């Protein structure tokens, strides 16, 4: 894809400036598809494209490649762990200072999730397998020594694609949750893995299913699992029958689940929505955001401010005329560039519930709780190597107590000193 030229342009998307069918609703973007859902509430598309943040690529350069998972070391706020889709688990003692990466031994498998035991920072759990590329893993692994040695948990032959892990304290004990997805082999009707949420109360030795009993959710692969305050939140995508996708469930005890939001709650939507990715505020656990995918595009952004009810927020969008255009399909892409099934996430600053980052093809930032968005990265090219960021964003972590952030994408890991203000200067 060629380099996009950006001006300092602010676009207000309304029927006053342009056709409502083109800009007020995503359905105008997808007008090549007659089977798209008809929305009774049209999400507002909002985006500003200007100068982008200064990003520094940090590797790993020897093998890391596409990186799906990031985790700070609870005992060292400068140290970062990164899970590569094909290259195992990597570690740097000081990511901001550019300290070299080391691949931790014993994990020659794709890592999709990383969590620390909240009561013992020497204990790490990782989930393996990349669902979106059908690169199967071997369940959950556990380390008792900060990743120097590993042992497989009981899930080795059960969980082929772990999309998320949560470790939290319940009644004084650490309890683990794994969101597992199943995939059908392209070679035939062979299913790898299992769909659902599983719980372990003994450090990962045994797991039992605790997913929603909602008939719509049966067989719907989990796409995200998050903890916020005393609640667990689960996002799903459609099952093989085309139902159960675009749904958010909540549980307070990790066993019983209630439907908190659905893309067809009004009765006017199909049940075939796809992936849901969520993020929550550490400073205000009642505030959360979710991105919802449909046909590979970002379709909706929804928000909760009370930890219970969800409502539409604005959707980041390229200004008119600057959207990536397909050369093979009759469509104009959204900010996901047709890849939201695999590249879609959000993150909330731990000290500011209104500072949100959304990542898909590029990165976008909101400072007003998803009321408006500004693009903060642009595709890496030789012409903008100091500012460009590798495409396809998978995870963002804010630096503890700071305005910097690290992002994982198809090129590895990158770092920006400050994403609260936009700068065109080269990183030092």
Helix content: under 10%
Q: How many β strands by DSSP?
A: 33
Strand content: 35-45%
Query: Taking all residues together, what is the mean pLDDT?
Result: 78
As an assembly, this protein is single chain
Q: What are the segments in which pLDDT stays under 50 over at least 5 consecutive residues?
A: 1-43, 45-52, 422-428
Q: Give me the secondary-structure category.
A: mainly beta
Overview in brief:
With 428 residues, this protein is mostly beta strands. Helices cover 2% and strands 39% of the residues.
What does this structure look like?
The chain has 428 residues and is mostly beta strands. The chain contains two helices and 33 strands. The protein has helices at 20-23, 26-29; strands at 9-11, 45-49, 56-59, 67-73, 76-84, 88-92, 102-103, 111-117, 120-128, 140-143, 151-152, 161-170, 173-181, 183-184, 191-192, 196-200, 208-209, 222-228, 231-236, 247-251, 258-262, 276-280, 288-294, 297-304, 311-312, 315-316, 345-349, 352-359, 363-366, 374-375, 393-398, 405-409, 412-416. A hairpin with a 3-residue loop joins strand 28 (352-359) and strand 29 (363-366). The longest helix is centred in the N-terminal third of the chain and has 4 residues, at 20-23. The two termini are 28 Å apart.
């Amino acid at each position: 894809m060629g380099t996009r030229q950006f001006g300092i342009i602010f676009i207000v998307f309304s029927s006053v400036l342009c056709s409502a069918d083109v800009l007020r609703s995503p359905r105008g973007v997808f007008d090549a598809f007659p089977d798209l859902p008809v929305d009774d509430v049209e999400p507002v598309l909002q985006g500003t494209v200007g100068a982008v943040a200064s990003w520094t690529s940090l590797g790993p350069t020897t093998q890391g490649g596409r990186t799906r998972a990031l985790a700070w070391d609870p005992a060292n706020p400068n140290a970062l762990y990164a899970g590569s889709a094909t290259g195992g688990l990597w570690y740097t003692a000081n990511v901001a200072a550019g300290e070299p990466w080391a691949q931790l031994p014993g994990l020659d498998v794709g890592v999709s999730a990383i969590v620390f035991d909240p009561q013992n920072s020497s204990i790490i759990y990782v989930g393996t397998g990349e669902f979106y590329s059908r690169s199967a893993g071997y369940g959950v692994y556990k380390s008792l020594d900060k990743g120097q040695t590993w042992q497989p948990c009981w899930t080795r032959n059960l969980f082929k694609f772990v999309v998320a892990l949560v470790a939290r304290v319940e009644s004084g004990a650490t309890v683990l949750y794994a969101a597992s997805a199943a995939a059908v082999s392209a070679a035939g009707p062979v299913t790898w893995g299992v769909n659902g949420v599983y719980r372990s109360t003994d450090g990962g030795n045994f797991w039992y299913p605790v997913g929603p009993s909602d008939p719509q959710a049966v067989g719907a692969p989990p796409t995200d699992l998050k903890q916020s305050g005393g609640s667990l939140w689960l996002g799903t995508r459609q099952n093989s029958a085309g139902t159960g996708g675009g749904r958010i469930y909540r549980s307070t005890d990790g066993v019983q689940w209630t439907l908190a939001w659905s893309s067809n709650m009004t009765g006017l939507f199909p049940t075939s929505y796809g992936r849901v990715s969520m993020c929550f505020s550490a400073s205000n656990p009642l505030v959360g955001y979710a991105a919802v995918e449909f046909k590979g595009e970002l379709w909706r952004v929804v928000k909760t401010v009370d930890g219970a009810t969800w409502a539409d927020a604005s959707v980041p969008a390229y200004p008119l005329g600057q959207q990536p255009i397909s050369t093979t399909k009759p469509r104009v892409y959204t900010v996901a560039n047709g890849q939201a099934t695999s590249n879609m996430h959000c993150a909330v600053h731990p000290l500011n519930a209104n500072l949100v980052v959304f990542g898909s093809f590029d990165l976008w930032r909101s400072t007003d709780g998803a009321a408006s968005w500004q693009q903060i990265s642009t595709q890496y090219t030789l012409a903008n190597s100091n500012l460009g960021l590798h495409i396809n964003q998978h995870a963002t972590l804010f630096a503890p107590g700071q305005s910097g952030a690290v992002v994982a994408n198809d090129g590895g890991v990158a770092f920006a000193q400050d994403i609260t203000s936009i700068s065109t200067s080269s990183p030092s």
